Amino acid sequence: MAANDSGVANQAVQAAPPQGEPAGKVAPSSLFGGPNGVLLLTLLFCLVFFWFSGKSRKKREQEESAIRKNVEVGDELTTIGGIVGIVVGVRDDVFTLETGSDRSKLRIEKWAIKSNITAAARMAKRKEIEKSERKGGSVK
Question: Is the pLDDT assigned to residue 47 strictly greater than 80?
Fold first, then answer.
């Protein structure tokens, strides 16, 4: 009977609540505690990161598209290959770029435009005029 009594005593010790807590209460689980909480926080962080990176990529693509649509004869362009020149002709998806002192001409596709130096200067001038108009001044 002694062996039987010790088995009952072990069960009672295992079922006892931890010290410092009332016997009838169960410890509340927090939303972000434990391994599931870490997983939830990681997933939330990833979703926010991809959302912001998608927005910035979309904004950059819209700006690049606007640059390509607004190419005019006389604009100074830089291509993705590093060629710098002045536009002398524009057709559908191809434009003619004049480069160097020997005035050599290259046909370049519009998707290869990296930046429009002349259009950027025009935009900066336009912003400066708008800013001065708001203040009530005039720009020469």
Answer: yes
Question: Residues 64, 127: one domain?
Answer: no
Task: List all residues 6 or more positions away from 79 whose beta carbon is below 8 Å from its beta carbon.
Answer: 97, 108, 112, 113, 114
Which residues is 107 bridged to in the sheet? 96
Q: Which residues contact 73 (CB under 8 A, 6 or more apart)?
A: 87, 88, 89, 90
**125-128 contacts, C-beta under 8 A, 24 or more apart:** none
Given a cut of 70, whether residue 25 has pLDDT beyond it is: no
pTM value is 0.51
For 111, which DSSP code?
G
Q: Which amino acid is at 52?
A: F
Find out whether 114 and 78 touch, Cβ atoms under 8 Å.
yes
Q: At which of 9, 42, 69 does a domain end?
A: 69
Tokens linked to 23: 């016997």
Overall domain count for the chain: 2
Query: Given this model, what pLDDT does residue 38 score?
Result: 81
Q: What's the pLDDT score for residue 137? A: 60
Mean pLDDT of the 101-124 span: 86
